[in-house]
Every structure is written in C-alpha cells, then in structure tokens.
Automatic annotation (TrEMBL), chains A, B:
Pfam families: MarR (PF01047)
Organism: Ectorhizobium quercum
A GO term, aspect molecular function: DNA-binding transcription factor activity
Name assigned to this protein: MarR family transcriptional regulator
SMART domains linked to this entry: HTH_MARR (SM00347)
Length: 172, 172
DNA sequence: TATTGTTATACTCTATAACTATA
DNA sequence: TATAGTTATAGAGTATAACAATA
C-alpha cells in the first residue's frame, strides 16, 4: 500500500545517476554547461559573451602583443578556421588588429586596441569573480586543489610546460 | 644578445594565461572541449556519440523505467524542446520507447528496449574507463576530491539532494 | 613538402517563442 | 492558470575539406 503511494511526489529525490555518479567527465560536461551560461549572463552585452574563445583571446592579445592566431588556437583548442572567424569578429568590433609578422610573411601578429584594452580591464575582475562565486559551497582549500589538478590537466592537453617552469624558455 | 636570440623558437614555452591561470571556469570549459572530443572518439559509431545528453538519457532510462523526459531534462540541463529531439532521435534508433503516463495524460514515461539495454551495458564500462584514463597524471586521491567537489556542485545546480541522502524519499 | 591563414559547406547545438492538451 | 510535451526558427558553434601564399 505504501509502495503504491510513493508515486513520484518529488521526482528528483531518489534519482541515482548510475555509473555517472563516479564519472568525472559527466560532472565536467554538466558543470561546463551551467558555468558557461552563468558566465554569459554575467558578461551580457559586453561583446565577449557567448562562445568559449573570445575572453581568452582578448586577454592573451592584451598580455602578449604580437601573439599569433595559431598559438591562441592551440590554447583554446580550436582549429585555424574557427580562429579566423573569431579574429574577424573581434577585429570588426575594434578590439584588436592584425599585422603581418616581420619575420614570417605567412604569419600574423595580433595587437590590442584601446577599446580592447579597456574591455580586458573591465572583464578581468568579472571573470575571476564569476568563477569563484559559481562554487559557493566549496572551501578555499578545495578550490586550490581544483585549480592545481585541472590546471595540470589543461597544460598537458594543450602542450604547455608544467606550472612553475614557464619562466625558462624551454627546448622544443 | 641572448635577449634578441629568444624570438619565438617554441611559441608555447612562455605563454602566461593572465588571470585565467587561476580561474576555474576557464579550466572547466577548456577541459570540457577536450574530454568531449575524446569521449566522442572512444564511442565512435555507437549511436550515442556526439552531444551531451544521449549517454545520460540512456543510462537513466535503463536504470529508472518510466522516468519522465522533463526529469531527465533537468538533470542534463536542457529545456524540454531539446529533450524532445533527443528522445525522438533515440526512439528512432530503437533505444527506448515512450508511453503515456498512467497517472497524468500530459506526461510520458520512457522505457528501455532490448537494443537500448544492450547498448547501455556496452557503454557503461567504456564511459567510466574513458573518464579515468583522460586524467592519467592525477592520483586516486585527487580523483576522489574532484568527484566529491564537482559532484556536490552538480547536485546543487540541478537540485538533487546532497550525496548520501538520496536513499530517503525526501519532502518537496 | 609543410605551415599559416583563409574560404566554403554541412552539420549540430542553443535559445526563444508559440502552440496543444491536459491538469 | 500552470504544466508536459511539441513544433518552428534564427543564431552560433563544430568539423571537414580545399585553397593561396610563403617557408
């Protein structure tokens, strides 16, 4: 009788996630969707909302004048064709400019504009704050572990040297 | 002299990521892209590759016969319209069936088919293995911390009760 | 022959709104 | 009035292949 009464009063209450309960990729993929939506909302109207590459591109160009599109493409894990559209878009918005690289006529260097620099300054604290505030229920220690472990994984994926060793210009 | 020689021999070697270096959302978003691509590759040809909802839907329907699309939609953070297309697709593939819910004619229950059950059994170990092998350079302890912290965050986002309390059918 | 940037295309995902039928 | 599912559509992202110019 009580068995028949349970029905689905709160359908969420007793849902088990099967093996996904212990599967990191599931959590990464799920949280990615939520955090990206939240980030878009917190940057609404700012020309860098939507999509995963614009913020990184802006900050990298601001920090590394003359950086090449192909380098950024590697760091944001896009192919060159996707990178072209990204740079097109940001150039049209007046955030950066392209110049032919002095040492290689095939390549380009990207340079920040005044507007781009202002926007970078505007979003920098916002991006950091949004990221931390998205995890209100984790401790600073847990946060540090996540940064360390996920940072290590990211660097391995894109081919950056391990943390703390990026001061020396390494061998190829 | 040595200053002029550095040029850009290995362009990746000394790239700083600006504030993104300490921004969790950046790592989540970046790793998400890589892990999703890798998962797609490891499930190539299996009818559940591509896109984030199919695997979860299959395992949830297999585990919870009669589960409603709207419940799954909440757990995978999609709206109902996206859920419809997902279920359409999986029904056409013969992985699950829809039935009108006996207690509410508006609602549906989803049920696994033989093919669906077989596919679920096929992918379960693959998904778990892929997830762990994608992080070859983290310890089991670090892995456990990630599962615990990200799992907690996921449950908060989608409105599931905290871990360990999902045995009791909670109040609404 | 390999690399950098470019263009084109097809495919998928995302977000939004409006609609139906039930409750 | 609110909810479960559905349909339609515009916009954005993704993957792929082919191309030109340069190394």
């Amino acid at each position: 009788m009580a068995d028949e009464m349970k029905m689905q009063r709160n359908p969420m209450a007793d849902i088990g996630l099967d093996v996904l309960e212990d599967t990191l990729s599931f959590y990464i993929r799920s949280i990615n969707m939520a955090i990206s939506r939240d980030l878009d909302a917190s940057l609404d109207g700012l020309e860098v909302a939507r999509g995963t590459g614009k913020i990184t591109t802006l900050l990298l160009v601001d920090r590394h004048p003359g950086i090449r599109p192909s380098v950024i493409a590697t760091l944001i894990q896009r192919d060159r064709s996707a990178m072209v559209r990204l740079v097109d878009q940001m150039e049209e918005s007046g955030l950066l400019t392209r110049e032919v690289a002095p040492d290689d006529n095939r390549a380009q260097g990207l340079f920040i504009t005044g507007r781009g620099r202002a926007l970078a300054a505007e979003i920098r604290p916002r991006v950091v704050r949004q990221s931390r505030e998205f995890f209100p229920d984790i401790t600073d220690e847990e946060h540090a572990v996540l940064i360390r472990v996920l940072g290590r994984t990211y660097r391995r994926i894109v081919g950056l040297p391990p943390a703390g060793k990026n001061k020396t210009s390494g061998e190829p």
